[in-house]
Amino acid sequence: MWAALAYCVLFLAVSTSAQNCDNGSCYPATGDLLVGREKNLTASSTCGTQNPTQYCIVSHLQDITKCFICDSRQPYREYYNENSHRPENMVTTFTENRRKTWWQSMNGVESVHLQLDLEAEFHLTHLIMTFKTFRPAAMLIERSSDFGRTWQVYRYFAYNCPESFPGVPQRLPQRIGEVVCISRYSQVEPSTEGEVIYRVLPPALEVVDPYSQEVRDLLRITNLRINFTKLHTLGDELLDNRPKIREKYYYAVYDMIVRGNCFCYGHAETCEPVDGVTPVEGMVHGKCACKHNTKGLNCEACQDFFNDQPWRPARGRETNACKRCNCNSHSNKCHFDPAVYEQTGRVSGGVCDDCQHNTMGRNCEECKPFYYQDPNKDIRDPNICLPCDCDPDGAVNGGECESRTDPANNLVAGRCICKRNVDGERCDRCRGGYWNMRADNPEGCEATPLVPHKLHADEPESSSWLRQGQPMWPYVPGLRQNGPCQCNPIGTSRDQTCDPRTGDCICKRHVTGKNCDSCVPGFFGLSDIEEGCRPCDCDPGGAIDSQCNQLDGQCKCRPHMTGRRCDEVQPGFYAINLDNYKYEAEDALPNGEAQIDMRQCVPGATRTWTGPGFRSMREGSSLEFTINNIPMSMEYDIVIRYEPQLPDSWDEVGVTLTRPGIIETSSICGNTIPSDDVLSTSLPPGSRYRVMATPFCLEEMKEYTIKVEFRSYQSGRTNPQAAILFDSLVLVPRYTSVPIFQGQEGQSRRDEFERYRCQENYLPVLKPQIPPICKSMVRSISAIMHNGGMRTPCNCDVNGAESTVCDPEGGQCPCRNNVIGQRCDMCCPATFGLGPQGCRACDCDASGSRDLFCNPSNGQCLCNPGAYGRRCNRCQDNFWNFPNCQRCNCNGHADRCDSVTGSCIDCRDNTAGQFCQTCKDGYYGDPRLQPGGSQPCRECMCPGGISSGRQFADRCYQDPRSQAVICNCNEGYTGPRCDSCAPGFYGNPEVPGGSCRRCECNNNIDMTDSSACDSRTGECLKCLYNTEGPRCDRCQAGYYGTAKDQDCKPVSFQVLSNSLNYEETGLNKLLRKRRETTDLYGHYNQLSRGALGYPFARPRVPLSSKPRAPLARPGPVPPRPAGPTTRQQPSCVCNMLGTDRTRARCQDGGLCECDRATGQCPCLPNVVGQQCDRCAPDYWKIASGRGCEACSCDPVNSLSTQCNEFDGQCRCKPGFGGRTCTDCETNYWGDPRSQCSECNCDPLGSETLQCDRNTGQCRCRPGVTGMKCDQCARGTRGNLPQCVPCGECFDNWDNIIKGLENETRHELDRAKNIESSGVPGAYDDRFKGIEDDLNAARNLLGGGLPDGTGVQELEAELDGLKDQLETQDQSLDGIENDLGKASQDIRGANDDLDDLEGRLNNLNKDVDDFKKDVDRVKNTNTVEALKSIKEAQQKSQDAQAKADGTQPTLGESEQTREEAERLMAANTGNFGNTDNELKNKIAELENQADMLSLREVNEKVCGDPIDETTPCEQAKCGRAGCYSGTPQTLKCGGLGCSGALEVANTAKERAEKADAELQKVEDEARRVLDEVRRAKTDADDAKTSAQNALDRAKEVRDKFKGLDDKVNALLEQISAFLQGEHADPDSVLAVAQEVLAKNIQYTPQQILDLAKNIDEKVKTLSGVDAILEATENDLKTAQDLLSAAMKAKEDADKVKTTAEEVRQALDAAEVAQRDAEQAIRDAQGDIDDAEGKLTGIESEISLAVNKINDASAKIAQMNNELTNEIGPKYTKNQENTKSANDIANAAMKKANDARSQLDDLRAKYEEAQRKVNDQSTPGDTSAQATKLRQDAAALASEVQKQLTDLQNLKLSFTSQTETLTTKTTDLTELQRRMETILQEITTKATEYSTCTT
Question: pTM of the predicted model, to two decimals?
Answer without folding.
Answer: 0.36
